[in-house]
Amino acid sequence: MTIGIEMGRAPNGEAATLDLEELLSTRLLVQGNSGSGKSHLLRRLLEQSAPWVQQVVVDPEGDFVTLADKHGHLVIEAEDHTEAALARVAERVRRHRVSVVLNLEGVEVEAQLRCAAAFLNGLFEVDRDAWTPLMVVVDEAQLFAPAMAGDVSDEARRAALAAMTNLMCRGRKRGLAGVIATQRLAKLAKNVAAEASNFMMGRTFLDIDMARAADLLGMERRQAEMFRDLQRGNFVALGPAVSRRPLPIRIGGVETASRSAGPALVPPPVASAAEARDLILKAPQDEAPRPAPVRRAPKPPMPDILVQLSQYRPPAAAEAAEPPPPPTPEQQEDKRRRMDAILRQVLADGDSAFRPASVLYQDFLVRLRIHEVEGPPDLPAFRRMLSTARAGIDPDVAEGEAWQGAVARADSLPEDSQGVYLLLARAALDGLPCPSDATIARAYGSHSLGRARRLLAYMEERKAIVLRAERGGRRVVAMVGLGWETAPGDPDGPAEDAAAA
């Protein structure tokens, strides 16, 4: 299912939409001088995509903490936590899928780099089970991935640069989608900027930045002058998630406001020269005594962020007057059948066999919300449902004792090969011909027939199956410990979709 995020309007008045799923796969780079509207663009993107994807905002100036009031983001104050604590917090953020804003406003520049590096590394190094899609927005990215050494220590700079490089270069396979914004492309490390496939270029004046922006957008050098004439909030976009050709966009409005003060003009008070002299140069002893300063009580210590995360509940759940009654057996059966039907819709996509389980899980959750199915399964439970569905097992048969024995034996194999084992078990249970190499490769999420054959050999080494050759080169697979055996099948036959069958 394609989710379009309306970012604003094109010159012809049509809505300029951004494909959210494509953005999560291809990342985004935003560039523009101070005052060009970068933060406004990021805020628009965050607000529009908040209902669809988990978000983490690395905020060096505290501009995005207002998202907490409207969209329920948890604000993490970096000054209240050590680097080790921030790494643990990041791990829990991914496991519990809570959208957060990492506020770095209260710490020095070098400490900002260290805290951001620790938090990003915690997001990156989480276990595979928590690799769900996560949009990571980094404002003022040139601070965390500088092109050259600056006033901070080399150790802090290297740590932040390594974390940003992991986010942009290796984060996609772990579900991390980097969205970075910078004032100048020349200040941003090239290996970080080069990994983005989508670009939004705003107003800029320096020749070197205009030339790099034109190169990234595939424009001629003589067209680079246009970036000087862009108004605030206007950007030129290019990328697979936005447009295949450079597209001018006027960014739309936002629901939340920034805490930063704008450059509003305030006229000075009217005073004569004599009054000004008396105010400024008057003898100190003639001045009225100043009131004694009021000492405020120190702020109470912040509660442990780990406790906050464990106690976090969505706003709707927190406002519920009382817990709902437990579902009846009829309701549970209806819910199971509806989830099975929705899972079949997910698998009906021709490319579903070659997409990772975490991406299919996100699509599954969105469809559950659309059909108002409450209580979604967690990712491990979804993986088991997915393996059973790909094997073509009827939901009623899946509850039987015989099939549960096959599922228990599949648990002893690596996770990526359990679906193939269940496919073979289903064929053996029903006495069907042994699946072909192409069918096994499809269940394995690959187009390679060689990988399918190597997987069968590996499973035989693990004493999970026994392969036997019949006349004419046909193949039989026996399931060790279950007493089941497939009918002879042609290993060179065409690929078949067990779930569709």
UniProtKB/TrEMBL annotation:
Identify the stretch(es) annotated as Disordered.
Answer: 282-302, 314-336
Q: Which domain of life is it from?
A: Bacteria
- The Helicase HerA central domain covers which part of the protein? 6-73
Q: Which InterPro entries match?
A: ATPase_Atu1862_pred (IPR014588), HerA-like (IPR008571), HerA_central (IPR002789), P-loop_NTPase (IPR027417)
Name by which UniProt lists this protein: Helicase HerA central domain-containing protein
To which species is this protein native? Falsiroseomonas stagni DSM 19981
The organism that produces this protein has a lineage beginning with:
Bacteria, Pseudomonadati, Pseudomonadota, Alphaproteobacteria, Acetobacterales
